Structure formats: structure tokens, C-alpha cells
Amino acid sequence: MKRFLLIISLLFASSAFAQTMREQIAQNPNLAGGIYTAYMVTEQLPVKAPKGYKPFYISHYGRHGSRYQTAQEKYDQPAVLLEQAYKDGKLTELGVSLMQRVKVIAEDAHMRAGDLSARGEREQRGIAERMATLYSEVFSGKNGNNVTCFASPSVRCVMSMAAFTERLKELYPELNITRSASAHDIHITRPEKNMDTFYKTARAIAKKYQQQQTDDKAFVCRIFNDYHYAFKQICKVYNSTDTHLFMGNMHDLAMIIQNFDNLPELHDIFTEAERYKMWHLFNIRRYLTYGPSVDYGDVRNEDGKLLLRDIIERADDVISGKAADQAATLRFGHDSAVIPLLAIMHAEGCDGRVSFANIERLPEVWCDSRVTSMSVNVQFIFYRNKKGDVLVRLLHSERDIKIPVKTDNYPFYRWDDFREYCLSQCRPEAR
Questions:
Q1: Segments making up each domain of the chain, as ranges
Q2: What percent of the chain has pLDDT over 90?
Q3: How far apart, in whole angstroms, are the C-alpha atoms of residue 132 and residue 176?
């Protein structure tokens, strides 16, 4: 039987937390990328459905593919800083090498802030191809030819939707694909209504903690041969009172390089300990602002309920026959939607809760790289037998993931049980 590509890595294995993040990042520096971690693929055999059951409908939410930094200054500020230091003779040998590489990176990124990369487009086409191949019955026309797509109005999300659906259409030309990228559907493509409640507070706390915990003098001294000069210039360029923003900026650039083809790597500018610490601090920042933290997570998770309700309601319409001609519903958005969706479902490894008072324990229970890489996706695959009994399978980036619903046939759940559980998590009192 033909083998199929599927996202997986040491980090994403079922025993992900058996090996510490420090060990995993030491083996693969790209895993320090957090939300910048590119979608990785390897081979895995498809899972055979229970006897008599065939897939008939797919509901999906996917983050956009690999992209550029969303802020142009992330490229421009270090490029200006390093070029001036080079002219002033204030760079070490490593600093000169870094300046040359950053110049190449910044030139490639000029006027492309937030754009989908070529790799991002390939990621989306690959996910679509595997979906169409593994679940050919869904797109064969036997259960309807309609595929409805919604995308966040963000250009990278629209481009991701275009790449994904183009590949579906190439494989199944008879599909009737409708696409929308409107603010009308923002509640299911970018549900962030409740995020604003504590976002600024959580972000300020995370940034302050990051500033306090960042020990960047050794890093700065590896790049510049005059620390006092470097301190003054960095503070000027970054409009800051210290140099931690420069180190954070360089971490971001070093991590996002994996989302592109033929750009120079920057891993050598960090020590192993620095790389892990930077991941840890950014993991905290993502967790407090988007994740299921004890302090802010309950409010943030309310947004995930909007998306989960939409998934359930549209599946109900297909199963009841109201939308019997619907083969798939595809949504393209952001990591800010994937994180609460997985958290409220208590998907394994995605719902860890700690308070800020115990935030140093976070790597034990929650990892941004695992929860939401580039092109991360959540797929609900629906199966039905001739009696009309329905099963559903939950995939996180194309791999099975457990939720606390009783089943005798994992990774398949009875739809009635699955549905009731999800609805219970959507109620206002659910935590």
C-alpha cells in the first residue's frame, strides 16, 4: 500500500514530553521556533476505518502556511543597526558574517511583511493532496461535490485557501468549490472577540518577564567588539532602555528562516542554552496571550467555542441531510484560533494549565511548537456505515489526537458521544 506524507517529528510524537524540550531543541534547533516552526512531514501509513464505515465529510480549520515576519521592522531594524556598526568598525568576525546574512534576509523580505512564502504554498497544497488521496470517497461525488471555504481576510490566509483548493480542484475537477474571505465570517476564521479582554495585560506581563529573564550581554558581545557602543546603538534603533529587544529580534529571524528556501541560517549566533531560554520565554508569551493559562485562559477559550459550535452545526446539517451535498467545509485562519479550539476540547498535550506564579513549569505541560506550527490544522473526518451510524476521527496536523471521550475503537469516536462532549465544552460554564 502506498505510504503517505504526514507531519511528525520528535516533538510531535505521542511521547513528546518524555524527552524534554531542552533535549529536543538541542537535537533540532528549529523546534525553538514556536509559532514559526515550519510544517514538517514524514511517512506514515493511513489508518483503516472500522468495517463497513467509509468517510463522507470533512470539517477543517487550518492556520495559514509558512510566512514572513508580520512587522517589516523585524527585518529593517537589525539590518540598519548592523550595517552602521560595520561602517564604524564595531563588529566582531561573527558580527560581520551576521550583517551580511541579515542583509540578504532583509532584501528578500522587503515589502513582504506577513506574506505567504513559497514553502507555505507548498505546505497547503501538500495537506490538500494528502486529504484528497486518503479520503478519496469524500471527494468522489458519491456524497456531494460541494466544498465550502472560509478564510480570514488576511492575504496569507486567502493565499493559503487558494493553494489548498487549487490542488483539490486539480485532483477532482468536478468539485464545486465556493470561497469567501469576508469580515462577515470573522467569528469562525479569526475568533478573537474575547481575546481583547486581557490581551494587553497578559502581553505586558509576558514582555516584562521576558525582559527581566533575558541575559543578553554575552550575546551582544559576540556580535559587537564594543559593548558600550552596542548598548547605545541598540537602544537608539529599538527605542529601548536595554538591549533585550535586539536579542529577541535575532531569535525571531533565526527561527523564521526555516519557512523559506535558500536563505542563510542564523543558528550559529546563539549558544544552546540561549536558544532554549529564548524559546522558553516566547513560549510563555504565547501561552499567556493565547493559551489556556489559569490566569487568562478561561476568557480566551470563549473564542474557541464560537469555532467549535460552527463545526458541530455544519456537521449536523450534513448528517441530517439538510446539506447532504456538502463534501467538506474548510476554514483558513490563524494560530490564535487553533490554540483555544484544541484547549477547550482538552486535546492531549494542548490544554495544560499553570498560573503565572508557576510559569517556569510551563515546558512540562504546554509547548507552542507542538500546539501550533505553521500550517497547523485540525481535521474532523466523518465516517458512516449503511445503517447511518456515524463515527468521527480527530486529527491535529494530520495525526490522531486524543480527547477525553470514551471509545472502544480509538482513533474513532461515536459521533453522538463526540458531539455531546463538544457541546458541553461550548457552554458558558465549561472550563
A1: 4-426
A2: 86
A3: 14
